[in-house]
Amino acid sequence: MRTELVVVGAGPAGLAAALAADARGVRVTVVDAADGPGGQFYRQPAAELNARRPQALHHQWRTWERLRDGLAASGVRLLTGHHVWTVTGGPDSFTVHALLGPGQDEPATVHADAVLLATGSHEHVLPFPGWTLPGVVTAGGAQAMLKGGLVVPGRVAVVAGTGPLLLPVATGLAAAGTRVSALVESAGPRQV
Ligand SMILES: Cc1cc2nc3c(=O)[nH]c(=O)nc-3n(C[C@H](O)[C@H](O)[C@H](O)COP(=O)(O)OP(=O)(O)OC[C@H]3O[C@@H](n4cnc5c(N)ncnc54)[C@H](O)[C@@H]3O)c2cc1C
């Protein structure tokens, strides 16, 4: 398969880049390891759950609608379930190597003139005493359970750590019915 631009990552950054390039006449293929577009920010509930109001779990939903509808109306090709493990070639021609599906056992390649990496961020977890106990999950994990599976990790929660992710996680859990008994930020107010 050959295209002009491969964008790795179908989160908000990758989708915005893909749509901008598509609007300028570039042939774009977006590849993502997940089952659908959205990334961390706009992680969507599994289709089988038939969520009636997925927007209740999100902020800036209009941006997502613009990206989602823009993608559907564009010429951008989206390849989901593609785990990219390396990119070879360059500087004028690249091969993006991916492994398909949950088992990641079937190889696939996409050839392109250019590659844009929009693979996002990941949570950094520092071990602490008790972090492997049942009921202890990372903030991002709790949010992924909620957005992707429509479940909360418990009826009462303490949300602790550092950084702005704690705020949408705490409000998301509260909106879903969990009593958030404390939001504990380890950084000082100026650092936040
Ligand atoms: C767990 C978690 C939860 C977050 N929740 C929020 C939130 O609620 N609100 C907020 O403002 N910010 C949140 N953030 C911060 C978040 O990273 C950004 O707001 C936003 O998602 C960044 O967009 P992005 O498109 O750069 O990356 P992402 O949204 O992270 O999208 C990156 C995409 O790249 C794909 N990808 C990564 N590596 C590969 C690979 N090797 N092969 C194929 N595909 C790959 C991923 O599947 C993903 O779909 C969260 C971050 C994390 C880690």
The CATH superfamily title of the largest domain: FAD/NAD(P)-binding domain
Helix content: 10-25%
The small molecules bound here are: flavin-adenine dinucleotide
Radius of gyration: 19 Å
**Span between N and C termini?**
45 Å
Taking pLDDT < 50 over at least 5 consecutive residues as the criterion, the unreliable ranges are: none
Helix vs. strand class: alpha/beta
Task: Throw out a few tags for this protein.
single chain; about 190 residues; alpha/beta; FAD/NAD(P)-binding domain; 2 domains; six-stranded mixed β-sheet; two-stranded parallel ribbon; 4 helices; 8 strands; elongated; binds flavin-adenine dinucleotide
Q: Mind sketching the topology for me?
A:
Elements: E1 2-8, H1 12-23, E2 28-31, H2 61-73, E3 77-79, E4 82-89, E5 94-100, E6 106-117, H3 139-149, E7 156-161, H4 166-175, E8 179-185
Parallel strand pairs: 1-2, 1-6, 2-3, 7-8
Antiparallel strand pairs: 4-5, 5-6
Helix pairs in contact: 1-2, 3-4
The structure holds flavin-adenine dinucleotide (FAD).
